[in-house]
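Exam revision sheet. Question 4 asks you to relate a sequence to its structure. Input first:
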Amino acid sequence: MPGGVGPREILTHSQKVCRLYKKAYRTTENWAPERWMFRFNAVVLRGRFDETKSIKDMRVLAKMLEEGEKECWEQQHYDPSVFKTDPGGIVYNREAVAPDWVFDQWHPWEKVQTMDFFESRQKLKAEFNEYYEKSLTKKYQPEAPAQ
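Answer key, structure tokens:
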């Protein structure tokens, strides 16, 4: 859940229900010691959500959603599993992506080792510069003042 200040995104009722289902599913997965127990509890959870499909009164559905979020909050695991690439995971933000200009700083002896990459890169840079000169520089020229 995103924290901090600022506007929150507007979610429809169905989006909130889908997020609640996913959170409840993950919570069920965290609490189950064995896979077969988790699968059984997941089917029961799905059944609980499917029971409410026929209800059309939004007031009742909103109240049920609020109660479901409260129940999910109360049942949350004390040490939930976190995917490795998610925030809090062991490899989150591990791979640093270097900006493109770093390749320009390489020594020619280093560039020779991966010549095909640098040749295609030079070709792409030339194509981009040509595109930039043809279209973008003319597109954003200030207009001549009307006299």
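Marking note for examiners. The CA atoms of residues 116 and 122 lie 10 Å apart.
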